DNA sequence: GGAATGACGCCAT
DNA sequence: AATGGCGCCATTC
């Protein structure tokens, strides 16, 4: 299917792809950056289609730095493994030093 | 066509 | 301050 919303999704992919190595961002941050503000869910939904993209969805977490979508990756701790592999300390789906690794598109992009 | 769901987040109580 | 409920927009049953 080719919904007209590809524009919105595409934006999400563009931003997600620009996430620096060893950094993470939140759905809300991206949503706000795109102007969706309270539509953080859309960002997460967009990630569903990011599977075939070059989008590092594992670098996108919720506002708390919690790897809520790790279930959608492989069903295991793959997401956490990837983050830790990039230097991001993760403790049971919870990103450590979040404010340090956090990457805000509205500020840094 | 209508209702329910979903990788979240903010507002209200 | 903490917990609960509602909203956002698109997709799917």
TrEMBL record:
InterPro entries per the UniProt record, alphabetical: ATL_DNA_repair, MethylDNA_cys_MeTrfase_DNA-bd, MethylDNA_cys_MeTrfase_DNAb, WH-like_DNA-bd_sf
Domain Methylated-DNA-[protein]-cysteine S-methyltransferase DNA binding: 7-88
Keyword Metal-binding: no
Chain segments annotated as transmembrane: none
Pfam families listed in its UniProt record: DNA_binding_1
Gene Ontology biological-process annotations: DNA repair; methylation
Keywords carried by this UniProt record: DNA damage, Methyltransferase, Transferase
This protein's record includes keyword Acetylation: no
GO MF annotations, alphabetized: methyltransferase activity
NCBIfam families with a match to the protein in the record: ogt
Name of the protein described by the UniProt record: Methylated-DNA--protein-cysteine methyltransferase
Species this chain originates from: Bizionia arctica
């Amino acid at each position: 299917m080719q919904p007209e919303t590809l524009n919105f999704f595409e934006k999400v992919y563009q931003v997600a792809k620009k996430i620096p190595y060893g950094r993470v961002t939140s759905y809300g941050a991206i949503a706000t950056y795109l102007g969706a503000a309270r539509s953080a869910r859309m960002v997460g939904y967009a990630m569903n289609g990011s599977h075939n993209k070059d989008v590092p969805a594992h670098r996108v977490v919720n506002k708390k730095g919690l790897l809520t979508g790790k279930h959608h990756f492989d069903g295991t701790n793959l997401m956490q493994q990837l983050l830790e592999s990039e230097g991001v300390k993760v403790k049971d789906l919870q990103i450590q030093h979040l404010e340090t690794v956090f990457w805000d598109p509205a500020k840094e992009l």
